[in-house]
Amino acid sequence: MFHLYFPRFTEAAFRASAVSATTAVAASVTIAHRMMLMSDPTAWTAGTHREALRMVSEKLDAITEGSLEAAAEAGRLALRGATGALTSDDVAHGLLAIGVAATKPAVRAARANATRLSRR
């Protein structure tokens, strides 16, 4: 009989890939809306200027928050390694958790922007 081995982090990896796909859609919606807003610099309004500033500042916020969250996850993984109870599955799951933590603020911002800009 054929037996498949699915490590315990497989479900988390599938969830991370689904989040990645939905974030790609949200980011493309956001980019499309912002390109339409900013395609004609002569028609810029105060709202367009605010959107341009928001576009930059939210990326800086997401980078800062994501790096702090990733560092916290890396610390958790290092602490588990220091106890000596770390398996190869734990390493894979920990690395995936670091990646998810690093991207969580950007995912949240992309979804919020797509929703906000789609309402206009």
Would you mind describing this structure in some detail?
- The chain has 120 residues and is an all-alpha fold.
- The protein has a domain at 47-120.
- 82% of the residues lie in helices and 0% in strands.
- It has 3 helices and no strands.
- The chain has helices at residues 10-38, 46-83, 88-118.
- The longest helix is centred in the middle third of the chain and has 38 residues, at 46-83.
- It is elongated and about 60 Å long.
- The model has no long low-confidence stretch (mean pLDDT 88).
The mean pLDDT is 88
Strand element count: 0
Provide the β-strand percentage band: under 5%
Radius of gyration: 19 Å
- Largest sheet features: none
Distance from first to last alpha carbon = 57 Å
Number of helices: 3
Helix-strand category? mainly alpha
Low-confidence stretches: none
- What is the ordering of alpha helices and beta strands? HHH
Helix percentage: over 70%
Question: How would the global form be characterised?
Answer: elongated
A few lines on this structure:
With 120 residues, the protein is mainly α. It has helices at 10-38, 46-83, 88-118.
What is the topology?
Elements: H1 10-38, H2 46-83, H3 88-118
Helix pairs in contact: 1-3, 2-3
